[in-house]
Request: fold
Amino acid sequence: MKLSSDDLSGLIATTLDGDREGGGMVKRALQVMRRHLGLQVAYVSEFVDDQSVFREVDAPGLEALIKPGDSRSLDDVYCRHILAGRLPELIPDTSREPLAMAMPITAAVPIGAHVSVPIRMPDGEVYGMFCCLGPNPDPTLNKRDLQMMRAFADLAAFEIDRQRQQAIAAGARSAQVRAMIDGDGFFIVHQPICALPGRDIVGYECLSRFSGAPMRTPDVWFAEADEVGLREALEVAAVRKAIDSAGSLPACAYMSINASPMTIRGDAFQALLAVAPAERTIIELTENATVDDYDRLAEALRPLRERGFRLAVDDAGAGYASMQHILQLRPDIIKLDMNLTRDIDSDPARKALAAALIGFAHDVGSQIVAEGVETEEELRTLQMLGADAVQGYLTGRPLPLADHLDDARSHAA
Reply:
């Protein structure tokens, strides 16, 4: 039985809003049309060479008959005949179409009623077919149903074209990130980490800077790499450059390298750290890192920490995620977020929260590094509160390591 006008209007609205509900627009369109027509199978196919490949399917209980990814030869199905006008788009009863009855697929499926319209892309290309069918004839199928099928086929074409354009854009972004990695379009700078109270440099955080086009900040490059599935590759390339610089570090200084949970668990990262100086390397969990499985991450870190690598957690005081990292991973170093240290000398709330975090860190055997320190007043307040070290523009900007070493030599002279 066909749906009422009100029900159909509601379903069309749901289809147009399908992505927000977690289902694709094309799949929702198939569901709407199959239910409206009262047929058993609906699918969207794509023509690939001489095959009709089923990209989306709605056929509850008939998954053994048809499912996404299945294909049939275009010689065996109705598609070419419909496009050529040898079969109509609307067939309420296949027994009245001699050509359909002569095709083996009609009896094999079986097909008693069939409605199918081409999906035409904006450039006129026929992508495939939007099709509904059932095993029994249905004389109630009419031209209005066919018009609706064409409308939904246009909707499917719009969504498929949108997905294609997204894939093309993603491919271009992926190529940019890959070119940045392969073409050596970034370099490492080092920002000093200075112990309190003497401000002696005890380590350097290794940070990536990008020189290639388009000009973007590091966070944008890493976010884009994440979107196209290349974050681990970019992070591994950055860690490799950082480790290569380790031989130039002063004997008393460590290096802090940034890595996401996914990268830390990966074989490439583990292989790189096999040649890194464990006692002089801090593994710093990247900002805003989402950890979906703390047990797996801890297991990946365990052999590294047993060898002497230390773990740092960034952005303490910035939100719930960083506190979860601290509680679950028990890092050796806790880094106070720069939004907490900024103006800490004049803000009682920041001062109280920092004092609590510093006390907690010392109680559990961790050290505190305060990031983003820019004024003498901030530094003195942090020293008074018991911070172990500071990092920020006041004590040193991110620069190539050679510049820091030249500066140190000039001061020594």
